[in-house]
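Researcher: Please translate sequence to structure tokens.
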Amino acid sequence: MKQEAKKKSIFDNPALSTKAKSANVKLFPEGALGYLLGPVLVLFSNSILNTYLNKYFTDVLQLTTWAKLFSILLPIISVVFIILGNILVGKLMDHSKVKAGKARPLLLLGFPLVILAIVAIFFTPNAIKSTTEVNQSIGVLIWVAIAYNLYYAIAYPFYYTSHASLVSLSTRNSKSRSLLATMSNAAQLGAIGLTQMVLPFFIKMGFLFVDSGTTTESGAVIYDIQASYHQWQIFTIVLIICAGLGLLLEYYFTRERITEEKFASLASRPNEAFTPKKTVSSKQQFKACSTDKYWWFILIFFFLYQLGGMLKNNSQIYYCQSNFLGTDGHYTIGDGSAYSGTIAIVGAIPTALGMLAVWPLANKFGKAKTIMGGAVLAVLGGVLGLFANGNFYIAVVAFVIKALGGAPAMYIGLALLADVLDHNEAINGFRSDGLTMSIYGAIMIGMPGIANGVINAFLSAFDYSTSNIASEQIRTAMSWVFFGGETFAYLIIGIMFLFMNVEKFSKLDNNAILADQKAEAEKEGIPYIDHNVRLMQEQKEAEEISEKARVEELKAKCEKKHLNFDEEEKKYQEAKKAKDEASAKKKAANQAKKDGKAKANKLKQEQRLASMTEAQKQEEAKKAELKLEKQKKEEEELEKRFLVMREKAKSRFASVK
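Model: Translation complete:
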């Protein structure tokens, strides 16, 4: 029977094809434009909205003065629509059937949506009546609600869900994937850095929040909301250019090689049937997870971590403008922004240093204990911050201590989540990534809105306005939100993680998963290949394919530019040899250093033993034996608990394959 002609997609148009033509990932243009510059531009626009949109609502549209309940409920209720929007985009990706990819086409579809949403947010019809008066109408509120959800529930999910998937779909070469992941993370940090460290100083110069040049009888600065509104509209052009250009760069200079493999495979097997494995339903996953205390611990951890972090980030400008006097002796938005920018710059230092220290500590003490230790430090920093009382230097020291304490949660939280998922798989015989990551995603997406709702509740309760930014009540409230919110979150995390000992099961979990995989392979009559061996084989195959593609590309380049292939290949091989030799030399030096340290420790131990009496040696040997017996007993008890959990799960899920 004739095979039905494949339908053409709009993405098959050459004008929409990827500009990353290489079979291998290249630093330029793919890495530099598709994974760094493009995302930086889009994420910068989003970071501006996350950080300053609520400030625009409270200070320009003045929602907390005339629409208090609306300003509280809008970001909280919208969380529901934001979660649904992300689920919708996830389903669109799963059902994508175009060679351009699962994620990339959605970037292009999101292009007009993002631009339309940004325009809608900052071009509210008839919003401002005069330099000091806003239009307090239901029409303005309806427009704001629609524009807010158009961006956060529809437009941004089209971008971010697709963006977050691109690294995993880019290539099977782990080295190349690591390179792209590093650049993607750098883009995220760069966008946040531009927002928190640069923009505040432009606001200090009178940009976006315009000083009218007059003050109230109490000395409070009066802002020209009409001029501020128009400046935000001008700034909208910058946001649109950044977001639009960034989206196009990311679309054109990325490539989903793994998705392309699927199409190539189907093309070579047009008549082959495929029977998917039975999937585990969300209901079954929840039934498995809900009996695991560690699963609840890790979800509560992420809830508290994200809520505390968003309360801190989103209240930072309000805290700074209400607690620290400006150079003219007044509390102003501009001076508050400058203080906020300074705190962000100083706070970035312990965050960066924490990245270097966290993993060595986690390897020595365990992930949960490292997070717990960091939580204690964060609580101490937070308590100190509550007593700053307008002293900027004390506030900065407190912020630095808290940032250092929060580093473990930032860098190893997801790794601990992976341990929990492995434990869950070992107990139940199937993974619960789908349900767990959906809940995790909902927490990450929903917390900014909930945090803004909490902040607006305090601002509304104490009559916040541009002429009342630093009353005693507002100053106290923002101190508790900025320092207190995250401090309470870390206090609960620290207490909870006293009981977070899932890592004790790691060896048993790995052995159980390995045994289940072998049993499954035997049942299906196929040879079992160890996971690490398979990964090494796949990596080797990927490198061989990459090398073959490199040679073909070099040949094409030489033919086009009339170069001698043998000479160019020789140059490449010589450069590669020099690089490999340098790498081997560095590796050998590190190993020599490691061996020297081990030798020194051994010698130190021998000297210590030589200085001991026979009775002391016997006493130490006895202590070591008792310690070993205790450890063995603990391991036996742990294994008994593990086997009981496995048996209970087996009776619950006997029908799940």
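Researcher: Any highlights?
Model: The radius of gyration is 29 Å.
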